[in-house]
């Protein structure tokens, strides 16, 4: 499965986290995210490392194609995390909110 929903106090007020973490086709991932945003009205699409570009693509598909004029981007965070071995890995979080 392509999603990993983290449901804790820090995400309950900001939206469900949709973690892009597989090599499935982009449209399959976008449909999974679409199902989640229709239930929750707000999601945070998150990508790490090589999955950052796929997270951006999923977010664009949602806002520009699937939910045209009914969803918009909220806060976008670009950051990096330190791995246990000392390497830095890029991360991105894109909030998408239903506007209706």
Automatic annotation (TrEMBL):
Can you give the residue ranges of the DNA/RNA-binding protein Alba-like domain? 18-78
List the Gene3D superfamilies: Alba-like domain
Give the species. marine metagenome
GO molecular function term, any single one: nucleic acid binding
Q: Which InterPro entries match?
A: Alba-like_dom_sf, DNA/RNA-bd_Alba-like
What protein name does the entry list?
DNA/RNA-binding protein Alba-like domain-containing protein
Task: Tell me which stretches of the chain form a coiled coil.
Answer: none
């Amino acid at each position: 499965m392509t999603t990993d929903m983290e449901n804790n106090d820090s995400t309950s007020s900001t939206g469900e986290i949709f973690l892009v973490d597989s090599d499935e086709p982009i449209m399959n991932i976008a449909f999974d995210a679409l199902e989640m945003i229709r239930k929750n009205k707000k999601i945070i699409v998150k990508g790490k490392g090589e999955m950052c570009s796929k997270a951006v693509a999923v977010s664009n598909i949602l806002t520009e194609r699937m939910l045209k004029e009914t969803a918009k981007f909220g806060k976008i965070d670009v950051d990096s995390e330190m791995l246990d071995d000392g390497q830095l890995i890029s991360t991105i979080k894109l909030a998408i909110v239903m506007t209706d």
